[in-house]
From TrEMBL, chain A:
The keyword Transferase is assigned to this record: yes
Gene Ontology biological process terms, A to Z: amino acid metabolic process
InterPro entries assigned: Aminotransferase_I/II_large (IPR004839), Asp_trans (IPR000796), NHTrfase_class1_PyrdxlP-BS (IPR004838), PyrdxlP-dep_Trfase (IPR015424), PyrdxlP-dep_Trfase_major (IPR015421), PyrdxlP-dep_Trfase_small (IPR015422)
CDD domains: AAT_like
Assembly description: Homodimer.
Domain Aminotransferase class I/classII large: 54-419
Protein name from the UniProt record: Aspartate aminotransferase
GO molecular function: L-aspartate:2-oxoglutarate aminotransferase activity; pyridoxal phosphate binding
From TrEMBL, chain B:
Lineage: Eukaryota, Viridiplantae, Streptophyta, Embryophyta, Tracheophyta
UniProt subunit comment: Homodimer.
Single GO cellular component term: mitochondrion
Organism this protein belongs to: Eucalyptus grandis
Top enzyme category: transferase
One Pfam family linked to the record: Aminotran_1_2
Keywords: Aminotransferase, Pyridoxal phosphate, Transferase
UniProt protein name: Aspartate aminotransferase
């Protein structure tokens, strides 16, 4: 593409017109190619454009209630009522809201974490999970310039974009086992063992996106042990704490295992799903360090990366989070509401599986209830997905990932029938 | 625990601008004065949330139908349209012809960064010329975006005004097609702006050399009090039919600092090109933060859209109220300039201080050197950046005498 741009430009320079006006000048961007649509967000665009009354959106991972409507949590509404009119909108520090970060670390590391007490965690507010991952990737590039990142197959598509734009070389490790629609544990362990010592590994803390397949507790212990042996750096993307099992402590189990085993980890946390704060872009990046001095140093360097990207993070969402988590009643309400969301999704998993089994599908659908979190990796092929969309106006990503949050008692029957129709002959 | 892989990480120096506030906060003196970071303060020295912003905020909170879904990658569509109109003018042919792509970004910083990354990927020239001096964060933003940074002469310490000849020479010798960063108005840190005639000369020179303008518009309405006057430089370039980039911030002119609201507009030759450019901007944004924050942009859209046709003396819409509040902030700052100038005159402080009233916008480049700045911090607990930049917005009628005393002392005792 660069050559095409240069060719276009040299034509312009040779054929220079008026010296003063710019009307004779061609566009600099003539040779800019239209970019491909984002595979995930493009699904919703297509859904919105569809006039069919039967249409179902099980594409993007945003929670819907049983009427298919987006939800603003009651604890969030109350927090916003308290905030409106009461706060100024001054710049946050580069590292974001101290209060929000403190509360967020407690969720990940534990209420009574010694690491928090000893001030060993370098942590900054980030632009949701994406921003936290990107900051870490940039930090990794700057301070471990020879390192590479191992990314599971499959993973959230944007992970590849993030580390690529940070110019960190990527490798993959085995994760999903298509035959069992579960974890390819043996191959995963082989990849961990075979990676050069001191590699960086991206781990989904819970509710793996897009497969919904998580290691068991025992498997996590083995992974942790092997990663320790190899001196790898574990980086956790935790986008669904509380949202997976309904219990934030339980969903942090993998992280706690690694902490017990003495790893120095990094974590990207997001409040997009578990507090329904999607569009507010609230998250946190933390890096566990050897001591307070190192944590101060690392935090200062993270800030140096944030400053030329956006200077300081947005205040509103952070205020909502710290208002809720800082108030015992609101926090308790939040925990209840998170459990309601998680339970509804678990209920829909059961319903979808039962419907498919009742229809007499020849395939096994037990993976629907074995997988966890917002997504179900159905095992459907891209062609089957296309058929679902064309014939049944059901929208999902072409990797066969179903967002269970988009499934309702109202559409689960229709969805099951459609899935059965496109898969029964396979 | 195993040795950390980040053992070797050293503590970064404090950000020179934001570090001033950190130092100020530590100071226990009752007379301390923060003239560091550029955030507006009232006469009482308090941060200000505009009344229209409060109204917009209330209406958002009280609307039960509002949800918190992800915005599209390029942000809130209505916000984008209104922002483009604000900077280009509502009747701009570029807008009517759909030649402008506008994407919501994280305030001015975010808009500059996204624009810089786009240029590094898709533009044939990888050098951006920035004025000497400029906002401290500019070189970092563009360097991390993948561009290399060069400087063009801008400020003349002798006159404390514009080094226009130097500017023309440096832009004149820049390679054809190079990117040039221009402060749309209220240059930061100097407060020195080209005149309209000088802007026209700059425009002609730049177009003749196919230099690509990248405007940083952080103070529209805040500098002169008039949104249209402060957008004139940008509109001149848009009106000649050429292409340019504009980074807009609502941090100061709507007081939305911490909400991080801004927009990047790229004015293209055709709407087809604008569409393709927009699609590529998405690829820059998605791996950075996926999509921009909702709250601040919603506030801005609420205010900007509420723009009726006004009858004389009857204009109660939010847009109009905003322009009134904006002018009041600009006027207070202009008043502080005059008060400080008079105070120095009264004290007979040596030197020509007329630049204080000639410069425009939030900042004054005092001309004080770093020893004098340090002296003022130590002896008078006055905080400013070491380049001698003071934020006029941090002054009040009550504190002007203290500052004048300090400047007087610094100039006569500490050189």
């Amino acid at each position: 593409m660069a050559a095409a741009v240069r060719a276009g430009v040299s034509g312009r320079i040779l054929g220079r017109g008026s010296a003063v006006g710019a009307r004779s000048m061609s566009s600099w961007w003539r040779s800019v190619e239209p970019a491909p649509k984002d595979p995930i967000l493009g699904v919703t665009e297509a859904f919105l454009a569809d006039p069919s009354p039967d249409k179902v959106n099980v594409g993007v991972g945003a929670y819907r209630d049983d009427n298919g409507k987006p939800v603003v949590l009651e604890c969030v509404r109350e927090a916003e009522r308290r905030i409106a009119g009461n706060q100024n909108m001054e710049y946050l520090p580069m590292g974001g809201s101290v209060k929000m970060v403190e509360e967020t670390l407690k969720l990940a590391y534990g209420e009574d974490s010694e690491f928090i007490k000893d001030k060993r965690i370098a942590a900054v507010q980030a632009l949701s999970g994406t921003g936290a991952c990107r900051l870490f990737a940039d930090f990794q590039k700057r301070f471990s310039p020879d390192s590479q990142i191992y990314i599971p197959v499959p993973t959230w598509a944007n992970h590849h974009n993030i580390w690529r734009d940070a110019h960190v070389p990527q490798r993959t490790y085995h994760y999903y086992h298509p035959e069992s629609k579960g974890l390819d544990f043996a191959a995963l362990m082989d990849d961990v063992k075979n990676a050069p010592n001191g590699s960086f590994f991206l781990l989904h803390a819970c509710a793996h996106n897009p497969t919904g397949v998580d290691p068991s507790e025992d498997q996590w212990r083995e992974i942790s042990y092997q990663i320790k042996v190899k001196g790898h750096f574990p980086f956790f993307d935790m986008a669904y704490q509380g949202f997976a099992s309904g219990d934030p402590e339980r969903d942090a189990k993998a992280i706690r295992i690694f902490l017990e085993d003495g790893h120095a980890i990094g974590i990207a946390q997001s409040y997009a799903k578990n507090m329904g704060l999607y569009g507010q872009r609230v998250g946190c990046l933390s890096v566990l360090c050897e001591d307070e001095k190192q944590a101060i140093a690392v935090k200062s360097q993270l800030q140096q990366l944030a400053r030329p990207m956006y200077s300081n993070p947005p205040v509103h969402g952070a205020l909502v989070v710290s208002t809720i988590l800082g108030d015992p009643e609101l926090k308790s309400l939040w925990l209840k509401e998170v459990k309601v969301m998680a339970d509804r999704i678990i209920g829909m998993r059961t319903a979808l599986r039962e419907n498919l089994e009742k229809l007499g599908s020849p395939l096994s659908w037990k993976h629907i209830t074995e997988q966890i979190g917002m997504f179900c990796y159905s095992g459907m092929t891209p062609e089957q997905v296309d058929q679902l969309t064309k014939e049944y106006h059901i929208y999902l990503t072409r990797n066969g990932r179903i967002s269970m949050a988009g499934v309702t008692t109202g559409n689960v029957g229709y969805l099951a029938n459609a899935i059965n129709e496109v898969t029964k002959s396979s | 625990m195993a040795d950390s892989v980040f053992n070797h990480v050293v503590r970064a120096p404090e950000d020179p601008i934001l570090g001033v506030t950190v130092a100020y906060n530590k100071d226990t003196s009752p007379n301390k004065l923060n003239l560091g970071v550029g955030a507006y303060r009232t006469e009482e020295g308090k941060p200000l949330v505009l009344s229209v912003v409060r109204q917009a905020e209330q209406s958002l909170v009280n609307d039960p139908s509002r949800v918190k879904e992800y915005l599209p990658i390029i942000g809130l569509a209505e916000f984008n349209k209104l922002s483009a109109k604000l900077i280009c003018g509502a009747d701009s042919p570029a807008i009517q012809e759909n030649r402008v792509t506008t994407v919501q970004c994280l305030s001015g910083t975010g808009s500059l960064r996204v624009g810089g990354e786009f240029l590094a990927r898709h533009y044939h020239e990888r050098t951006i010329y920035i004025p000497q001096p400029t906002w401290g964060n500019h070189p970092k933003v563009f360097t991390l975006a993948g561009l290399s940074v060069k400087y063009y002469r801008y400020y003349d310490p002798g006159t404390r005004g514009l080094d226009f000849q130097g500017l023309l020479e440096d832009l004149g010798s820049a390679p054809s097609g190079a990117v040039v960063l221009l402060h749309a108005c209220a240059h930061n840190p100097t407060g020195v702006d080209p005149t309209v005639e000088q802007w026209e000369q700059i425009r002609q020179l730049m177009r003749s050399k196919q230099l690509l303008p990248f405007f940083d518009s952080a103070y529209q309405g805040f500098a002169s009090g008039s949104l249209d006057a402060d957008a004139q430089s940008v509109r001149m370039f848009v009106a000649d039919g050429g292409e340019c980039l504009v980074a807009q911030s609502y941090a100061k002119n709507m007081g939305l600092y911490g909400e991080r609201v801004g927009a990047l507009s790229i004015v293209c030759k055709t709407s087809d090109v604008a569409g393709k450019v927009e699609s590529q901007l998405k690829l820059v944004i998605r791996p950075m933060y996926s999509n921009p924050p909702l709250h601040g942009a919603s506030i801005v859209a609420t205010i900007l859209r509420d723009n009726q046709i006004c009858l004389p003396h009857i204009c109660r819409d939010m847009y109009n109220e905003w322009t009134i509040e904006l002018k009041a902030m600009a006027d207070r700052i202009i008043s502080m300039r005059h008060q400080l100038f008079e105070a120095l005159k009264t004290r007979g402080t040596p030197g020509d201080w007329s630049h204080i009233i000639k410069q425009i916008g939030m900042f004054t480049f005092t001309g004080l050197n770093s020893e004098q700045v340090a002296f003022m911090r130590q002896e008078y607990h006055i905080y400013m950046t070491s380049d001698g930049r003071i934020s006029m917005a941090g002054l009040s009628s009550r504190t002007v005498p203290h500052l004048a005393d300090a400047i007087h002392a610094a100039v006569t005792r500490a050189s």
